[in-house]
Write a structure and sequence with these properties.
255 residues; alpha+beta; nine-stranded antiparallel β-sheet; 6 helices; elongated
Length: 255
């Protein structure tokens, strides 16, 4: 089964590495043509740090002109809000749970809608990058086939293959979830590369990666954006619970 009907569960040892929420809208040139002074004043107490960068879009067929990407960061640097002429996004590397994450988005999103009055939202997306560590869960000697559902570990279940022989093992799916939602799911074995210099030792542990990119597409008014995110999140919970086995759930310490 790719989807689970189990109720959503919070875990004490959740494997979430990064969460990104992005809402795309028809281009608003005013965001690129000037600095967003008024918008910053509305959110500055939560995102006091600011940087402006020029990004080159990678999806254009014609000449690619740099686009201003406004970065607003929390004091501790763990939360980042991005604003461009095409999207607004919130991301974090320290996910506190869905309710707290959605609450952190409420004020910036409301401020954006009030100031820039987007015609609609064309895409509401939510991405979860999960990294399962057997070492951190006390499961070092347990094979992945006992922790992850068969749909994502099929090659590992063959009698003539062992984990140490597989140089690569992954699965990529694109799934329609309902009439307006879809998901791109990537799973596989891999290592986490250090982000900084060689002074940081490389982590050699092999982890199981679950990367879920879910979205609702169409033409959504600003008043429907929050409800769309709730719908997308509900689908994410069904997929996550469908990936893991009961043994993995127990090791992650349900709350």
């Amino acid at each position: 089964m790719l989807f689970s009907s189990r109720p959503r569960t919070r875990y004490g040892k959740a494997p979430v590495h990064e969460v990104i929420c992005q809402l795309r809208f028809p281009t608003i040139l005013a965001i690129s043509d000037g600095d967003p002074f008024g918008f910053q004043e509305t959110i500055r107490d939560e995102f006091p740090q600011y940087a402006r960068r020029q990004d080159v879009p990678n999806h254009s067929d014609g000449p690619r002109q740099p686009v201003a990407n406004h970065h607003f960061l929390s004091e501790d640097g763990r939360w980042r809000l991005n604003l461009t002429q095409d999207f607004i996004a919130l991301s974090t590397l320290t996910y506190p749970g869905w309710e707290a994450f959605a609450g952190r988005l409420d004020r910036p999103l409301a401020a954006f809608i009030a100031r820039y009055r987007p015609a609609n939202f064309q895409r509401v997306g939510l991405r979860y990058v999960n990294l399962f560590s057997r070492t951190q869960l006390g499961l070092s000697d347990v094979p992945w086939t006992e922790l992850i559902a068969p749909a994502y570990t099929a090659p590992l279940r063959e009698p003539d293959v062992t984990e140490d022989r597989l140089l690569s093992c992954g699965c990529d799916l694109a799934v329609r979830l309902d009439s307006s939602c879809q998901a791109r799911i990537h799973t596989g074995l891999g290592q986490v590369k250090a982000r900084s210099s060689a002074e940081v030792p490389q982590d050699s542990e092999e982890r199981f990666i679950l990367d879920m990119d879910l979205s609702m597409n169409g033409s959504l008014s600003g008043s429907l954006a929050a409800g769309a995110l709730e719908t997308v999140h509900a689908h994410a919970a069904r997929i996550f619970e469908g990936v893991i086995t009961d043994r993995m759930r127990e090791a992650m310490e349900p709350l």
